[in-house]
């Protein structure tokens, strides 16, 4: 019905006894243990079903509302509580509200009476139209079919009760008593049991109700299809669908217009340059946000409002023309022919869009395409269980979800001194730098959801690029005063449904996500980076906490758990594992006693705003950048309070785990209970609590130990909770079994891997699959670990250490220290990108003119260079520099640095040496300016720190361009080749990185010396390479052709010769031309059936030399065209 064109005229479908069946699996250890049941859904319809039904026995009613009708909205109604057989929704059309009630009274007397009582026992408002329709299974003379026996029969008590209720509550039956609603079968008489009841306001509002009842479209049912018409009316109350505020489309092409408008609006705000009070911070933050919002409103186009969804990205002008031709025929073609044209246009448009998307795909973004098959949740938010009932109004839903996710504070702010944890000494804080903000913005996504002011990271980047000082002053003012502006504390909390949940009326089936102002999130990112640095450098977080810190992961926690468990098994102990999840209860969490820095105080007292279908109010909501590190900091007292010699603790952010070991499982449960009670008391003092429903227990047993059923009884404010042991538990993404052999984990992951392999097989199909390039990208992206952050140079150098050594994060440079601490005085003059060779002379001429000018100014001028040669099979690397002051050489150096270095290392070392020498000479001769001609820097910071008037310029110049100083440095570097190497280092990072590249020539030589394969020397004239060949990156070659090209090169394909060697492949080895042996050389060079296509091969290689055809891009392209036109290698 939802996709049948017979029902295209229907806007609302009220269905009794809908289909109900399994639609998925709940998230569990065993995917087949819990089924998820539901009814039919469609992207074009909103589905309303009675909430709270999770079993195989489904509801009796459902309602579908079409999505593509402008000004038509629908929601669950608060007129009548939901019931499995009675469902009420509010339909709002053009601002007028109408309540529709779908009823299906059936079953035995007990169920029938329960459904009837639910329908008639609740009061109905008289402020707006109400329509009750459905199958009542009741006969009464007042609605009996004319001429039937029910006109004179005495009705049963249920029918009399329904008739009396309708009369007393002013409901009228609008059925046509001459038309039956149910057709009798097997000797039964026709009757009217499907009723349409309207209150008086509905009768007055819908004069043209047009009630009809027809058998057409009933799909074999004995009940006829009843239809009627409703529309906009003025008989309504003030409760209408809220109109959303206007939103805007952020167009990157309008960046200049937006920045101009932002600068103009910001200049009118009169922001203080240095805020000194909290009120000034408030006004400054509001001014920046308001200027950004006004600039967006002035320069960006508005999004279209209404129920109409956004146009699909693949839709093009051809689709629009085909759709117009279907609606308004320009010729006498049939409707089926025009519909076929529309389907063809859509198919071509989708293929073209997919080709464009695949063309721009890379390893970094290929995983975004997995969201295509997941679809989008389009069902409305169902009623939520709250206070023993169900709430339907959006504001009430927000209150219910707020009460679940953000409970009110039950304890006041306390000190941590009674817990035995002293206060950490305060450390000096530093102003936020421009580089810190730029780093935080560079790692931010331009597509993140905006906050209440509607500004995203793209707009903040534009604003900071043109006016960085107001934002920088705001952030530093927040740190200085320890105050977070009130407008930045507001957070819109969006409710995201969790996937694969059986009961969507339970608040636990949703996840709150905070939508903060990007101006606030950027500050929190900067503070988070500083807190992570502080925690790592000063070792503030215990090592048993694996979350919220550098270089730790769930895998590390799993390895530690496995190691500790097997260690205790080796000692003959029994091991029990219990884990719980902590939840924040108080809104005033003790941040300062743990880490008393101004960064924490600047982000306190956040408030969350309430919006319909979203939720509200709490402290640190999930989704803010500070959440992981703050949760790790809050766990410090908990981890240090547990000091038991027979237990080990693990934590990952807010997941707390205990590993107990003793001589028996029963003793372990006692240890776990005592530790859990101690931990619970510690959490109460911190304003936290355990989420006991998320707690699990498992008894690890070695081969010689027997399983146990010992339970844990935990005491809390609401009473006691008993936790029973499980055979398999899920912890931090691992599936742990009692033997700790990870069989269940492997089984579960193998199922996921098989699903991925099946998808890869379908996507990389050799006939109609994706291209070779994209198949390779997909293959690399699936097994390869994705790196989400770019490491610093010092981290890259540390990664080149011994593979068995433990990686240590070098906390050398704090976040507030920029890469260039002297941006105004340490300058770099780089060459223009891609400068052609004919400009080298012009650049050299300008450099000579600049050197003469600098010499007259008294600037100290330096030239550095490096050199590398291989003499008698030995690598020699030399460095040299020359320093000139007032056109006289005042210092020089020439030396070698050994064979385990490269030219890049020589250039770097030469620059470092010349900078060190120049700084010493400049200090002794009171020289304020240094100008070095090279392409690197190293030790210039010391010189610049000594005097604020000093400055250094490092400038690139072309080599061997008749620049006197550069030629002198080159001669000194060449002279260093002959000198004895100075052991500056054992080997360099450049030398280590080049080792794999140096091994490639030897690999090629070894490949050429191998015994020739059957097709090796002909189709593989060059050795294999890691880089994909250009022929497979050509998008014009179809997938079926590129795959057959590989078949020809490898000899593994649909060829007679290959079939003869593989007995399990059916088919004849003969060629279709009659040759008894169909070989690849025969198909390429001799088969008469491909004679017309063979001219393509002659154009690339007149002598048909396989080395030319398969060893050059032109030859491979000719072979691909030959395969395409001749059709060789097709599956038969």
UniProtKB/TrEMBL annotation:
The keyword Glycosyltransferase does not apply. Pfam families: Exo_endo_phos_2 (PF14529), RVT_1 (PF00078). Keywords: Nucleotidyltransferase, RNA-directed DNA polymerase, Transferase. Residues 477-736 form the Reverse transcriptase domain. PROSITE patterns: RT_POL. Residues 1002-1024 are annotated as: Disordered. One of its GO terms (molecular function) is nucleic acid binding. It comes from the Eukaryota. InterPro entries: Endo/exonu/phosph_ase_sf (IPR036691), Endo/exonuclease/phosphatase (IPR005135), RNaseH-like_sf (IPR012337), RNaseH_sf (IPR036397), RT_dom (IPR000477). SUPFAM superfamilies: DNase I-like, Ribonuclease H-like. The keyword Nuclease does not apply. Gene3D superfamilies: Endonuclease/exonuclease/phosphatase, Ribonuclease H-like superfamily/Ribonuclease H. PANTHER family: ENDONUCLEASE_EXONUCLEASE_PHOSPHATASE DOMAIN-CONTAINING PROTEIN-RELATED, REVERSE TRANSCRIPTASE. This is Reverse transcriptase (RNA-dependent DNA polymerase). It comes from Rhizoctonia solani.
